[in-house]
Specification:
This protein is mostly helical and 80 residues long. Helix content is 56%, strand content 0%. Helix 4 runs antiparallel to helix 5.
Length: 80
Amino acid sequence: MLSPAAATQLAQAAPDGAAAYAQACAECHRTPARFMRRYLDMPPAERAAALDRFLPTHYAPDAAQRAAIVAWLMQYQPPR
């Protein structure tokens, strides 16, 4: 499990988070709005850990790609 700091560090060396999301996730999840609802009420560290546990089993097995996606999703703000 990656800490938010470790996820951020890996993301800096990894592909751009938006590009990684587009490659691994966007075919089924055009935007993160719907699935992120379950994570938004979590504290940031818990949210990052939950996403890091979920993504390896959901089309993002590569650690660098996953870290980039997690870092990108941690910045997600729901539409108003």
